[in-house]
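User: Fold this; tokens only.

Assistant: Input:
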Amino acid sequence: MDVINLLKEYPVSVNSINFGIKDAAVEKELFEAVWIQRKEPTYNYEAVFVLSEMWKVPINYLVGRLRCEAAHKLLLIEKNMEEALYYYKLAASENQSVEALFSLSNLKLNIIQNLQAYEESLVHLKQAANYPHKIKYNEQVSITNKYIIESQLMYANLLFEGLSGKKDLNEAKKYYDLAWEGSLKKSAPFAKYAIILCRGDGGDIIPKDTEKGLTIFREIIEDSGIENTQPGIIYLYGTFLFEINKNQGIQFIRIAAKFGYPTAKENILEYEKKLNDNNNNNNNNSNNSNNNENDNKTTNNNNSNNNNKNNSTNNKKKNNKQKKNNLC
């Protein structure tokens, strides 16, 4: 169709911010073509159908993404929360958009911050957390449901903390497990779960599992790259690892301090002292072990020499006895 030209050649990423479009002309063509109307739940169906076929993504999911992108722009660029909320709610209700439900919850938790907002966020996140991880285009092609893992983790965190008065560790564990099983890579939102596992804060319901917690931390750092990982996550990984392997753990604590993380800078000398004390103790134990080993060798040698002497004496006695018998 005539309104779609530049988009045919542009490498679009459906789940990326602004569809991965960095060219202003291409961006303009996209939103003019689909004709997302403000205050009206309408759009150019023909254009969306063409894009759906071209990008191999379901129409309903694509419309939800377009409405969320419109809301993001209204909120972040035009500072128009009223209209942004309108598009988020529209995408949530008409397109079953996990992204919209997650965005609504974030707004209510971080901006409104009252009991009603927490309760509404729980409702939004529970709905989002129970949608599928993948959205099918056909039997061979599917797309990751944007923000599904983040929604499950945020919902689990709220249930774990009981911020709205509804603490439920069993439900929290259910959604932590769903997020864990559904994610190929572990990103920063998993940090809370990693802390719970390393500390054992979940009691018998979410038992302590330091190995799994450290694995999550390590995957977060590896996935993001250490330069792009939050220094607080690097510090926490270092402190938990320090309890198992002090020489490895201190490396991450030092990096967090180097990156300017306040707690790391405040505590680095204490951890360095613990490391030095531990190394000194290990050296002393090693020296004592070597001394004991040498003492044992000396004792064994002395015993061997004594045995040899005794054997020699016994042999002499035996020979003398034989000589005496021969004389008889």
